[in-house]
């Protein structure tokens, strides 16, 4: 008890010393003391033990989307938030999902018959590895088939890798492709393999990328062992979400509102069988291959010379029989209604479905958010309620293709456009001790400032100081693909951020369990409360600020850097390119207006010059800023992606594409649409400037 009191006092001292030097963006001078007190109450109310309690409760059993076990997690979360005083709504959807791994096998046929292992070994050290409800390795949305064929090795299975195989004269048609994880989204490996005529695809994690060549393997270390298998979805349609209902929510088929669904055969799902294996199984194939050695950069970490082809003497059988169909999934969304501005929403979220136990990915984020709901609920019961509504969402079916959150965004598209202040994504947010975030330009400052108020565990430094290291300020990345911020940011235009504390990962393997978490991720269980404090402070500031604390000047600063890079990319293949002249001119005008807005807002708030009625008008205008980048025409690689500012990489599925319209042209070394994009981008930038100028007129 004494130790806990000492920690509490230390936190108060740290918070108090930091808060004095803080510039609370968005707050009037008269309201800053109340906000400092609110934040102090929040931090002191965080119960660090609750994170562990919730994590053990929700990750002691495997819980894949669509299973009864996942519904138990749903019910636990709903009850926990209701008990904390939140209004809880459950949103059901009927999604087109793979209904499990089905039947699959991988075996050598010649020169010897040998079945290959498709599931992690049971380890005496790890009691969770013996759970009878764990499934073998599988890839959702695989095609079904039973093929026996020769083998071709395709490195990472990227577009460039397949093009290289053709260039070297390797015949892919009718063969089983063996590709290693990395380089792109696994679904594109399947897409390219099928495109080049492969009969099937086997994906493995190479020890050079995540195994013994990187250090000790599990259970001694954090590397992939010879039986570790990465599961994952293969979904690669031209939109995010349910494959049968683009742009529309996949509402229950037995509900009042009827949604038109595409037929599965219309969507372009993969038809070839695909399955993942471990490198312990892959070595049985690679060690028997007899073809030409691979080119530079294609050699992996197994103790053989990697070869392009297996030869006619080596044949492998790959069988997958995987059922797909309509499956009910559920989002759980809790709301703590705002005291004065309930129709302005600050949204935090993390998916809860997992490929296995999900102790790091994703449910470390889930457990932290459940603890946060209790902390904020306790304050609300004491009369300390945020001004704007705070929503905490637990998304379903993310692992199958970021589906649950997308359907919710499509269902509430108009409301979100009008009401959503920000979305903070916290997928696997407490899976280690390495703090980091990616964010929209307007939200970079608030997460950095929030990190300055929180002590880093076992350190005399703040989270911000540890995060920044030797740099003046930490690097904040740009949002890419792969998680639940996509629909918010890239389809509707809600400023978003994603992050937390990362660390070692046995990504999508059956070993992502509580044994791994306690031994390697965070044995002290101190990071759950720490991340809750940082993210909670950011959410509270967004919720309580008199004027929504977007940093408008970051738009111009970041866009200038991105356009400079875009011009450099074009000039690498078109030396006479004169640049994006219209956009550059628009950017200069934006820079002046945005910087002026940041300065005048700060001055007006510091002198308490903004009346309540006027602040409502300003906030409504602020909510519209990011929408300047939302273009109904969308991208040529998929018009569901409507943000001119950012999209997922349509070739890799994970990377962040800034200025995606231009990036798509430069990736194919085209100049055909550059003038069109200069026009579209300059129009968006001018629209943003006019909105900022409108706010300036209100001050």
Automatic annotation (TrEMBL):
Q: Which UniProt keywords apply?
A: Coiled coil, Signal
Please state every residue range assigned to the domain named Peptidase M28.
Answer: 331-514
Q: Which residues form a coiled coil?
A: 556-607
Q: Locate the Transferrin receptor-like dimerisation domain: which residues?
A: 580-689
Q: Which CDD domains does this UniProt record tie to the protein?
A: PA_GCPII_like
Question: Which stretch is the leader sequence?
Answer: 1-21
Residue ranges annotated for the PA domain, each copy included: 147-214
Record InterPro entries: PA_dom_sf, PA_domain, Peptidase_M28, Peptidase_M28B, TFR-like_dimer_dom, TFR-like_dimer_dom_sf
Entry similarity comment: Belongs to the peptidase M28 family. M28B subfamily.
- Specify the protein name: M28 family peptidase
Source organism of the structure: Mariniradius sediminis
